[in-house]
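look at this fold:
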Amino acid sequence: MINMIKADLYRITRNIAFYIAIGLVLLMIGVSIYLIQPGSVGQANVGDVSTVQYSQETQLDDTIVLEIDDLSAKDIRKVMLSMEGYELDKDVLASNMNLYYIFIFIAVLAITVDFSSGSVKNTLSSAINRNRYFFSKTLFVFGICIFIFFMNTYVCYFANLIFNGGKVSSNLWTVTKISFLQLPPMIALMSVLIGLAFTFRKTSVFNVIAIPLVMVFQVVMSLAITLFNLNSEITNFELQIMIGKLAAEPSVNYIAKSYIYCAVLIIAFLSLGYTSFRKSEIK
């Protein structure tokens, strides 16, 4: 298993797509730090610590708040730097759902490429059985994605601290605590992708399903709440919302319920992937 993980590490670090993924993470961090407001992919509002809400709670002029979207990047920086007490790094961490799309790169490079190229058949015909293959790939994806997750946290924190002079920074303990609070939902996201990768196997099919999955799930949830008159509070356990709330000092009760939900997702999708892989015919 260790040799297989080493082989995957050797292969992925020599693939340009891996560095494109890392470059995208750094690009998102750079844009967020320069504009002093994070970007967010998806429909969910993760803004428990959002720029607009914060602006409305401070003494900023109402006209500036209403027109902030029309300002130039340079003017936005000036406005945001004037907001005493605003913590950009917490806001960026609240938008960590963005990393889901980076994790797709890793799942493709580590898992589906093997199936699409047919190399998995050669691997399984050697001394590697399916159990060892599945668990090696799972541990590898977890390891690389967790590395990227914490890299994002600390590069963002220190780059913001240096580039913006500490004016919109929290502290190292705060971002570390938030990162560890967010780790279960991030692992749940990784598990979803691993499960889908082993279920659908081909890169093209996996991408078609994985890329729009978050937005489709949000739309379906919104429709279900409207059509069946469900309690809208269930959206608090949608992963994008959950990641945002875990960056905003949630209650112990919310954390416990969130982690139970994450555990269910992790078990369900890893079991799905494992069962599908065990029963599949490898061509």
The mean pLDDT is 85. The CA atoms of residues 4 and 29 lie 32 Å apart.
